[in-house]
Amino acid sequence: MSEPEESAAPLRITSAETGETRALEIAGRLTVFEVTEAEDRLAALPADRDIAADLSGLTRFDTAGAWLIARLRQRIEAAGQSFRIAAAPADFEALIARVSGLAAPAEPAAPAPRRGPLDRLADLGEGVYRAGQGAGVFLGVFGLFLARLGRALRHPGEFRLTALVSHCEDVGLRAVPIVSLLSFLIGVVLAFQGATQLRQFGAEVFVVDLISISILRELGILLTSIIVAGRTASAFTAAIGSMKMREEIDAMRTLGIDPAMALFVPRILALILMLPILGLVANVMGLLGGGIMSLLVLDISPAMFLTRLSEGTDIANVLIGLSKAPVFAVIIGVVGCNAGMRVGSNAESLGRQTSKAVVQAIFAVIVADAIFSIFFAELGV
Q1: Helix (H) or strand (E) holding 234
Q2: Phi-psi region at 62: left, alpha or beta (left = phi > 0; alpha = psi -120 to 50)
Q3: Domains and CATH numbers, the chain
Q4: What is the DSSP string of 22-73?
């Protein structure tokens, strides 16, 4: 291989039959420039007997030549014969071994086995097991939050009041416009649809009861929690996950700072404090939207709307709705913080965990609301 290209001998391929073996000799250059010619001549060799190849006469070769010899070996062995290299230049056999994988055809993918009832039952069991693991992790993070909150109560100097105020602004104040707009529109839609249906029975006045009970008891706090879950759970995951990617959390531990005290407690506590306030804002805006639409569609004056609201709606509906807020806040906060701590060292992991946190938080909030509805129905309130 050390000879210049001009001085290397041209390709020469000869074969001779000796009993049950064919002696194959390849000499000269076997590079990418000769591979087409060599492939045509080697393809003409019948695969009816064993082959002993003498490659000692090669003066120049490259991966293209090694690939061609590997293809020849594969064809001969596939026909049930043997192929051996009797002699070859230094490193040529190693080069052949390296390119043999390129010469081998891709094996067809095995057909997927048919899945029976037992396989589906196993998948169900695995899903239940993973759900149980997720619930265990959730309880672990929630317990860690309670433990650090208790320590903050015993040692107020460790509590980060500035971080709490900042997160209250992010979680609460900046969410007021979107919560107000959505709740106002929901009130408008409820009033319009309720008026359309109740007008058929001459019971238009009961649209006030429909709006008030729906918003105060269920929709106000539920839609607010879904909005907060979408914007806040993702924000918590992105912030903590970015810190984990940049190894800031490891640096905090090195400096003796507890990540749970510094990151979890202010965020979750801010949600617990601000979500009931956002729920109240949603209730007021929902009733305002329903009152305006009732005036426009049913000619129900504001005074009549307020009178019917006070007569047909109990304060218990407001309390029931707001009692869910702290539970929803804990769910959203714990899910977002836990997802942030599970972020790996790459941006793909951050995006995956952020999306996962939003989905899990919204799903958990809806499930918790369903449980609350069943619970209060059983209590008769």
Answers
A1: helix 234-245
A2: beta
A3: 12-103 (3.30.750.24), 140-379 (no CATH)
A4: EEEEEEEEESTTTHHHHHHHHHTS-SSSEEEEEEEEEEEE-HHHHHHHHHHH
332 band by pLDDT with thresholds 50, 70 and 90: very high
Is 22 within 8 Å of 73 (Cβ atoms)?
Answer: no
Compute the C-alpha angle 18/19/23, nearest 5°: 30
- What tokens appear for 250 in the block? 């490891």
**Which residue, 178, 303, 156, 194, is CA-closest to 229?**
178
From CA 355, how far away is CA 116, in angstroms rounded?
32
Is the pLDDT score of 103 beyond 60? no
- Residue in the structure block whose two tokens are 């589906």: 120
Q: Please compute Rg for the chain using Cα positions.
A: 37
236/243 Cα distance (integer angstroms) = 11
Whole-model pTM?
0.67
In this prediction, residue 167 carries a pLDDT of 92
Reply yes or no on whether the pLDDT at 6 is more than 50. no
* Residue 244, amino acid: K
* Element of type H or E holding 12: strand 12-18
Q: In this prediction, what percent of the chain has a pLDDT beyond 90?
A: 31
Query: Between residues 155 and 47, which one has the greater pLDDT?
Result: 155
CA distance 235 to 246: 17
Q: Is the pLDDT of residue 107 over 80?
A: no
